[in-house]
Amino acid sequence: xxxxxxxxxxxxxxxxxxxxxxxxxxxxxxxxxxxxxxxxxxxxxxxxxxxxxxxxxxxxxxxxxxxxxxxxxxxxxxxxxxxxxxxxxxxxxxxxxxxxxxxxxxxxxxxxxxxxxxxxxxxxxxxx
Length: 128
Description:
The protein is mostly helical. The protein has five helices and no strands. The protein has one domain (3-126). The protein is 78% helix and 0% strand. Helix 1 (3-12) packs across helix 3. It is elongated.
């Protein structure tokens, strides 16, 4: 989704639109906005809606991109550690890498409440 699509969707969502209008109204009090003469009903806050929507879009995109990158780094570190442990346990490095890659691919397709994961938690919990 690009910034224009985000703004269009934001205008249609009553909650997000209200939030953005509130921020635009606050912004309008802080800066001067030259209002077009031909639009009598347009306020400074209305003119700033697009600016506020774009600012929220950039913040959210950067925030979620950063979180995704941190998650990907954590997954890669976890994979490397697991491969290292398998090699130390006697598996060939290429076999360990292939196994871990397949395992993480399978895990990614399941949700946290997956029955297989519930069973694993139960079994691991019994071992403590």
